[in-house]
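User: Fold this; tokens only.

Assistant: Input:
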Amino acid sequence: MNKNIIIIGGTRGIGLSIANKFLHEKNIVHIISRNAIPKIEEDLLRKFSGNVFFYKCDATLVDELSSVRKDILKNSNNIIDKVICNVGNGSGSNKYIQDSQEWNKSWQTNFNSPIFSARIFLDDLKKSKGVLLFITSIAAFEDLGAPISYSVAKSAIESYSKVLARRLGPDVRVNTVAPGNIFFEGGTWDAKLKDNPAAVKKMIESQVPMKRFGKPEEVAELVSFICSDKASFITGACFIIDGGQTKTLK
């Protein structure tokens, strides 16, 4: 396909699976991550030499994103075709009123980061008639016990994407993918399973009709389709991938 694809948050879990999917499809993938993971980077560089680039950047800082954009343009012949915002952190307390420090920290990661990413790369996407995709969460739609700041931020991104889609069509397609409980080593559910396997198993079996965790690769397959020409009439949409867990009609 040879498209230039930016993945913001692409060195572990869902983001890493998305990167692998696009690389196997012969695209050029630019991975932005706050922290370098040498083993992951070395592995991808060995397998996809010349088609994968890494950039260290804190996506909550708009100046850093702006600087990284210049480096990406140098490595992509000034063409950016698709941007996938996969930054998020659902950790925090379950207080119904969070203190300002906790709220602001969560909001900065889960709302500001994707907003800044859109701000920095939208002109490039308009030029290429590209695709902007946000990875959100089913916590945006229902109270599932996630921190309130996380749920509200993800819900706000859902609203933001809908508005962008209406205002940017037909030049840029804007969609979201809202995963449910996705398991990967070193992830949140890996830690919860180790801490209380009986409780986690009971929750999955009672709340998820498919009675299992989702896989990052399953999310990557969906993302690949939404970003492809096969989905050329799809914009302003949210795709939930949660094994049937959410109950509210969307």
